[in-house]
Amino acid sequence: MKITIILVKQNARKALEIGDRAYLLVGERISFEGGYDELLAHPQLLTLYFGLDSSS
Length: 56
Known about the structure:
The N and C termini lie far apart (31 Å). By secondary structure, the chain is an alpha+beta fold. The chain has three helices and two strands, in the order αββαα. It has a domain at 12-50.
């Protein structure tokens, strides 16, 4: 069963633990789309938009 959940301004770390894909919206545009591993490959996105330390 597939379920779609949209989280806005929630706990990014928790969302990445349970979600299969991430979409980063800046304004009305998707600036990033990909899986958890792809997001982790962009440490600047983790820091700038999610407030996560990419080394953890």
